[in-house]
Design goal:
alpha/beta; 2 domains; Immunoglobulin-like
Length: 488
């Protein structure tokens, strides 16, 4: 989620990663990737994907605006991937910027100038001068550097076990006069005589709503080129557009079907195609029903009031990648991650990487400790996802007094225990938790995990099934109770 001035938004997110190191391009020599895709929705538990070996894949990871095209400075992509891998994360969104130039309008203190976006999909050949002072683009000629970098970055991620959601279009690139001035489909920026502003109002809204035949042909040609570039890579997901306006639904549906049809016709491996929420979140007029009714394989719904805290259990209609970008803008913490995981979502995190921003709903602007706790929590949830049998384990919040329980009743139960509320003197007290083991006869091992003391040895106890059991949490912070049947 980003403000209306965010078009020019991809800025200074490299404060954590560092700057200046040139990208080490991955070649196309055969290598064994750590991923085993392409992914497809699990027939056993459709809240998740499975890979080519039919292994359940729970997705969780951090993404940031400048992880593909450079704006402020060269992005240290290998260091970024190393950081994600060290945190045990396994998915990113690879951001696309349609504009030729971008400023930092979303930052607390944006720069006073616009920055060149590089690389772009098209060659700047001229003749003629574009509105930014550079040569006009030729929309019939792709820039090889763009697609070489695209393939290299997806491959590098796969070699670290990371899946990549490749974004085709950027919703904020057409909604303000400044944004449209920098857009390739502005008739003054290309040599092809193509202008997406059909009604001449100085905006390009039609480009993502009801593009004319010439504009749609250009868009489809770009989509085909991306598919041709990535079709044989197994760690790819696709996303049509980041946060377009709600009026873009028909256009998005068309492109989802176009992608699927092109892969079929070309005999390519089938990759999951996603649809994400609209601009300005729940306050911008969008409706999550448009996502669930779409031909997409996965969706990222929006709504601060619905998904930021205590989200409803995922029902399996689609794989749901619950992205803080479409809920907070920049926000969320470790509690969001655990709550989302326990309700059957795949949580991912819009990560500012230390940049001072103002784009937030529901939490302070300066909150780096919160961000770091969320990063760590994603890796922890993935370890538990690997430990559980996700083909059988589903959200069963009614089985635990905390409301957060992933369970395969009779076999295993994972209960999330939020931190106890502090008393008036600031001290947290121990508290009871109940777990309903009715119909689950036998002896269970109960393993307590203190999430605020990650190095602590888990505490274990024996628990008999057959009814509701009242247990005392042996710590005062957030933690887990893992119950599993004792083998005979």
């Amino acid at each position: 989620m980003r403000s209306s001035n965010v078009l020019h938004c991809i800025v200074t997110v490299l404060l954590l990663c560092g700057a200046g190191q040139a990208e080490s391009q991955a070649g196309d020599s055969p290598q064994s990737l750590h991923t085993r895709g392409p992914l497809r929705q699990s027939p056993d538990n459709p809240r998740y994907f499975v890979d080519a070996d039919n292994r359940m894949v729970y997705l969780t990871g951090s993404h940031t605006w400048e992880n593909f095209q450079d704006v402020t400075q060269p992005f240290d992509y290998p260091a970024y991937l190393d950081r994600l891998a060290a945190l045990n994360q396994n998915v990113i969104r690879l951001w696309a910027i349609e504009s030729m130039r971008s400023d930092g309008g979303w930052l607390m203190h944006p720069p006073s100038h616009e920055n060149k976006v590089a690389p772009l999909p098209y060659l700047r050949t001229g003749p003629g001068v574009a509105l930014d002072g550079g040569p006009r683009l030729d929309l019939s000629r792709f820039d090889p550097a763009y697609f070489e970098r695209l393939r290299a970055r997806v491959k590098q991620a796969g070699q670290r076990g990371i899946y990549v959601s490749v974004m085709f279009f950027q919703g904020f690139s057409v909604v303000t006069p400044g944004a449209w001035k920098a857009h390739p489909l502005n008739g003054r920026n290309n040599v092809n005589g193509i202008d997406g502003d059909a009604n001449g109002d100085g905006l390009g809204l039609e480009v993502h709503r009801s593009p004319g035949p010439q504009v749609l042909e250009i868009q489809e040609a770009y989509v085909r080129q991306v598919l041709e570039t990535l079709h044989d890579l197994d760690n790819v997901l696709y996303e049509v557009v980041n946060e377009a306006t709600p009026e873009s639904v028909a256009w998005q549906y068309h492109l989802i079907r176009f992608i699927k049809q092109y892969e079929r016709e070309r005999g390519f491996a089938v990759h999951p195609v996603g649809m994400t929420f609209f601009q300005l979140g729940e306050f911008g007029g969008g409706d999550n029903a448009a996502l669930f009714d779409s031909p997409a394989d996965w969706v990222s719904p929006g709504g601060y009031t619905k998904y930021a805290r205590n989200p409803p259990a995922a029902d399996g209609r689609k794989v749901m990648i619950l992205d803080t970008d479409h809920i907070h803008g920049i926000g969320g913490d470790h509690e969001f991650v655990w709550e989302s995981f326990m309700r059957g979502y795949n949580p991912i995190y819009m990560d500012p990487l230390g940049a001072v921003h103002e784009l937030t709903i529901g939490e302070p602007v300066l909150n780096e400790p919160q961000h770091e706790r969320a990063r760590i929590a994603m890796g922890e949830t993935r370890r538990w996802a690997d430990r559980l049998d996700l083909t059988r384990t589903t959200p069963q919040g009614d089985l635990a007094s905390t409301g957060y329980c992933l369970a395969d009743p009779g076999r295993e139960y994972l209960v999330y225990v939020p931190a106890s509320a502090p008393q008036s003197n600031g001290v947290r007290t121990a508290r009871p938790v109940t777990i309903n083991l009715t119909g689950a006869a036998g002896l269970f091992v109960g393993e307590w995990v203190d999430l605020e003391q990650p190095q602590a040895i888990p505490r274990s106890e024996w628990i008999y099934g057959g009814g509701e059991r009242l247990l005392t949490v042996p710590f005062r912070g957030a933690g887990l109770l893992f119950l599993y049947r004792q083998k005979a």
